[in-house]
Amino acid sequence: LLKALTATSPRPSWHPSFATMASYGSAERDLETQTAPQREAGSPLLLKALTASALVLAGALAYVATSGPAQDLQAAPVMMNRVNVMPVAPKFQPMQMRRRQPELKVRASSSPKNVASTVAPPAAITETEMVALTRAATEERGLAMDGVAAANSGHLGLPLGAAEIGAVLWGKDMTYYAKDPTWINRDRFILSAGHGSMFIYSWLNLAGYDLPIDELKNFRQHHSMTPGHPEFPSSEHNTPGIESTTGPLGQGVSNAVGMAAAEKMAAATYNTEEHKIIDNHIFALAGDGCLQEGVAFEAAAFAAHEKLDNLIVLYDANDVTLDKMAEFTQSEDVITRYKAMGWDAVVVDGHDMEAVHAAIENAKNDNNGKPKLLMCRTIIGKGIEEVAGTNAAHGEAGVKFTDESRAKLGLPEEKFYVSPETRDFFKGREGELKKIYDDWQETYAAWKAANPEKAQQLQDAIDRKTPSVEEMFAQIPARDGIDAEATRISGSTALNDIAKIFPDVISGSADLHGSNKNYISGGGDFGGDAALGKEYTGRNVYYGIREHAMGAIMNGFAYYGLNRPSGATFLVFADYMRNPVRVAALAELPVSYIWTHDSVGVGEDGPTHQPIEQVSSLRLIPNLDVFRPADPEETVAAYVGTMERQNGPTALILTRQNVPNLKEIDVNTRRMGTIKGGYIAKKETGALDTILIASGSELSIAMDAAKELGDGVRVVSMPCMERFDRQEDSYKEEVLPAACRKRVAIEAGASGMWYKYVGLDGKVIGVDRFGFSAPGDIVFKELGFTKDNLVSVAQSA
Length: 797
Description:
Elements: H1 2-8, H2 36-65, E1 75-80, E2 85-87, E3 105-107, H3 127-151, H4 157-161, H5 163-173, E4 188-191, H6 197-206, H7 213-217, H8 251-270, E5 282-287, H9 288-292, H10 294-305, E6 311-317, H11 334-341, E7 344-349, H12 353-365, E8 372-377, H13 402-408, H14 420-450, H15 452-463, H16 469-474, E9 484-486, H17 487-501, E10 505-509, H18 513-516, E11 525-526, E12 534-535, E13 540-542, H19 547-560, E14 564-570, H20 578-587, E15 592-596, H21 614-619, E16 625-627, H22 632-644, E17 650-654, E18 658-660, H23 667-675, E19 679-682, E20 690-694, H24 699-709, E21 713-717, H25 721-725, H26 729-735, E22 743-746, H27 755-758, E23 763-765, H28 776-782, H29 787-796
Parallel strand pairs: 4-5, 5-6, 6-8, 7-8, 10-13, 10-14, 11-12, 14-15, 15-17, 16-17, 20-21, 20-22, 22-23
Antiparallel strand pairs: 1-2, 1-3, 9-18, 19-21
Helix pairs in contact: 1-2, 3-5, 3-6, 5-6, 5-12, 8-10, 8-19, 10-19, 17-22, 19-20, 22-23, 24-29
């Protein structure tokens, strides 16, 4: 049989006679690679082999049917040999409850799954280390049980199922220094499956980060450092070691793509032939839920296309989602899907620490231009027998079994127990990592001395050094020579002026650089394909038609901490980006969004492309500044405002159509007034009778209407409600005096939010219906955005 088989097909890559194994991407020969004569010559032997196989299988089945205790018909346990994979023959028994048993299984009723380890690990974990890592994994399971039980809330499944993965990452494979959690060359770890937050809190505590055990006891409590889902350090939380705010599935793994891109950019920008100061890796732990989200697929495609081989995604593949077993909603071969995109993808037993370690080390050392997916087969809720392997293990269903389960794991009755041996092990690990950290500091000092200009640029990026508003304005010339211009064109000029001031500013677009006008001239194109003219120092990022991923990748750039990212698309497609925008606001990230084609003024493209509710709905997001500038000078100020802001994102809403350059308003008044969010654009010359309030392209309409309405009319420009609302009450009263209740607001968008300024006595000219396809000026006229209509409404107010 063996002779026949080896005569007709080659040895598989895992064959034990191979001294080494190609870790990723090796093409395996099959019968299709042979010539026709070779196949014909092998046919008689193949027939004999198949006949022999049938006889052997029949005998085996007869033996199994008459011996030994019965086992589950649906699944066959897989025994992991560290070089080979030897499937154990199934034994038979009646069908039982559908669940994953505490071994790795191949479910016969579902689509074929990759379950066998495809990595041949070197014996790199010593016996002493294995004992220590096993103990740490057990104690992490105990911490997770205790934290969720104390809060009576949370998710046990992932922290228990991925314990060995955590032990390998923090105990062996990741480079970090807990005493300096913001060290720029640390490896980044993102818990994309943020619901399993006790996983990362436990490991941060064990690894020596400044996250005391008392904070684990306060899991999910008010003002604790351990909120329900990980939160990037901000004014609300400051948990060292948390690299991104996660919880909305798919966001974290997409953030990791952005961080990997940021690392590539930093390495290309700052490393020299003599000194390498940036060479870290980006790790993300994701589950089925993350990979099912469309944003993860978008980001994964981008990562492969841009050759981000510094990205390592550990896929916690446990066959479980919240509602059902995963087979209920998914059947694709994830490994094949990722390989098709251009990733290297392998399968490991997630509970075999040597296999996990080997897979990670192979991934780190293989700089082949491909991101890495490690499909880690795990048992969700491992350690609580009553729920392990079922969707019940996902949340807190196992809490009532934790005392018995802790005892079975060999843990003492003391809750939140960490043994002295585990503390000592991580003290030793800290010493190893400090040596790496100190060696890097020496390299960095030498690099800094040899490259003072690069060193200053890097330090400015780390510090997010920002000139004052006045200093930025002084470097951007006035636009006096322009009579009329679309604010997207004004924005292009402003962006390029800003890019000269800030070398860490980058700009990207979802396939719309030409329409959004947000290309940094001379900045180069980001990416790993030199044949396309790309390089990792490029400041213009081409995201493809992937708005959702663009938002999440931009957040990744911001989390990494060395760039000020901006990204662009049409305003009507901002809804595709809504979740990463919300997370950026929550995490207080200084990200900029350039959203053009801002209103029904888009015209001929019709209602599918004419924004109505978008601007108002964006204004509802806390901590997001939304600028809708009226002319070139207000646009300059809006861009300056984005750079001034350090504690949250900013949206720039820009026109497709030309708008007048409002030269009758002083340049400094427009610029500084925009920075304040609202200002008096035209002051009344008589007793104040009426206030017209406008933003964007409608400001010029208000200015024209005021000339006809008489000397008691004031015009207020309101380019950014959020900034205006943050001003002192005295300034707001100066601009909008309470005594004047006759007010009319005009904006080519939904009307609702303007009533906070016009009050119950005021009126709003807005759009609370969908538009229609026609030239923009006709659409504006039909919907009432004209001087004559504004005059009429104001007179009747």
